[in-house]
UniProtKB/TrEMBL annotation:
It comes from the Eukaryota. This is Mos1 transposase HTH domain-containing protein. It comes from Araneus ventricosus. It is found in: Nucleus. The lineage of its organism: Eukaryota, Metazoa, Ecdysozoa, Arthropoda, Chelicerata. InterPro entries: Homeodomain-like_sf, Mos1_HTH, Transposase-MT_Hybrid. GO terms for cellular component: nucleus.
Length: 122
């Protein structure tokens, strides 16, 4: 069995995608390997395909682009706490999570639940 990597940095995941893409590994196989080592929530198959396209188009940057505006208060620790709450009660609503985590804005919380934690509506 492989060792697992819990909560890898985004640039680490993108570096792995860039490396495996350079070895002509298919995007679906890259996603499978990432999920095997980092867990199912590491990155969606669609995002892996997006990064493969970018690298095939000549991009070499694996780091986040600088953004203007207010910095986010949502860090990996806070996302882990939201994930823990979601696992405790799978019937949590976004409104209930907003009450539980008032430091996260009502517009940012749903984005993190769906994009970073890969939870979807049923």
């Amino acid at each position: 069995m492989f060792k697992t990597i819990a909560d890898p940095a985004d640039c680490e995941v993108r570096s792995v995608i860039r490396f495996l893409n350079a070895k002509n590994v298919k995007p679906a196989e890259i996603h499978r390997q990432l999920a095997e080592i980092c867990g199912e929530n590491v990155m969606t198959d669609g995002m892996v395909r997006k990064w493969v396209r970018q690298f095939n188009n000549g991009s070499t940057n694996v780091h986040d682009e600088a953004r203007s505006g207010r910095p986010s208060v949502v860090d990996h620790g806070l996302v882990a706490k939201v994930n823990e709450k979601m696992r405790e009660n799978s019937r949590f609503t976004i409104r209930m999570l907003c009450d539980e985590f008032p430091q996260i804005s009502k517009t940012v919380l749903p984005e993190n639940v769906t994009n970073r934690l890969n939870y979807r509506k049923r």
